[in-house]
Hints:
- With 307 residues, the protein is of the alpha+beta class.
- The protein folds into three domains: 10-68 and 206-232, Pseudouridine synthase, CATH 3.30.2350.10; 70-205, Pseudouridine synthase, CATH 3.30.2350.10; 238-306, Archaeosine Trna-guanine Transglycosylase, Chain: A, domain 4.
- Helices cover 17% and strands 35% of the residues.
- The strands form four sheets. Strands 1, 2, 3, 4, 7, 10, 11, 12 and 13 form a nine-stranded mixed sheet that branches.
- The longest helix has 12 residues, at 22-33.
- The model has no long low-confidence stretch (mean pLDDT 90).
Amino acid sequence: MNPLKSPLEGFLNILKPPGMTSHDVVAKARRILREKRIGHMGTLDPDAAGVLPIALGQATRLIELVRGDKSYRAQLLLGRITDSQDVSGRIVEEHPIPQLTRQAWEELLKEFQGLMEQIPPMVSAVSVGGKRLYEYARQGIEVERPSRKINIDRIDIVQYHEHAPGELILDVDCSGGTYIRTLCHDIGQRLGCGAIMGWLIRRRSGPFRLQNSCTLKELEQGLAPEKLVSPGEVLQHLPNMEINERRLPALKQGLAQFLPDKNWMEGQWIRMNYRGQLLAVGQAIWQDDRWLCQPRKVLQWSESILK
C-alpha cells in the first residue's frame, strides 16, 4: 500500500551511462515520467557510470536524510598528473613508474583508510566565493580550496599485474563527499610518480546497489512498479516511532508527538509511521522535562491509510 497521494513518489535507482551529466539524467527522467519534482543524490562525473539514485515527488524533500556512504570500482593509472586528476585532463607531468609488489601495495593503501582530510579537485561542484570550482577551472583559474573531512572504510585491490605495474583496479567504500579522482591523485603524490583516475563505476550509493538499478532505456519502456522504492524503505536506517490514529490530525498540523522514554539525542532524526507507513520525519527535542518528536517534513498522504 502506498500511503502517499501520488503513486509516482519515491526513489528510483538509475544506472547512469558514461557521457551524460547527472543533470542530463534528471532532465531525461523528467521528460519520460512527466514529473517536475525530481532530484538526484550525489553527482557522478560525465565520464563515470553507475548508481545515480533520483527522488520523485515528495521524496525530494527527504534527499538530505538518505544514507550518503558510497562504493566505487576505479582504475588507477600511475606515472601521470593531469589538471583534472583523471584521464580526460591535460597532462602536466609525467614520471617513471615504480615497481611495487602486491604486498607493498596493500601496505601502502592502508595509509589511505580511515578518517582524513581531502582537498576537492578544481573540476568539482563545490562552491568557493559564490562560484562552483569547475567554473573557475573552465577559465583556467585555480583557487584555494578548503579541505573536507572524509572517511575511507575500505580499499581492496581487485586487479594487479606485476608485468603492468602502472595500472590497478580498486574497490573503495567511503563516505559521501569523497572524490575518487583525488584519492588516486593523493596516492600518486605519496609514491612521487603521480597518478590519475581512469574509468569509474559507482556500485552503491547508500541503500541503492548496481544490481538493482534500471537504465533510462528501461524507464522509457515503462516504469516497473518494483523499481520505485518507497521513502519508508530508503529511510530504514533512522529510528522509528508509531503514531496513534487519534494523533494523526495533530501530526498533519506539525504538532510535536510524545516519545517513549529512551536516551534520545537532541536533533536526532526519527521516522514517524502509522501502521508501518511513513507519514513524516521529525527530530527529537527535550521540552518540559520530556522527549518529544517535532515533525520537520510532513508528507501529504491519502486518507485510504485509515481504512
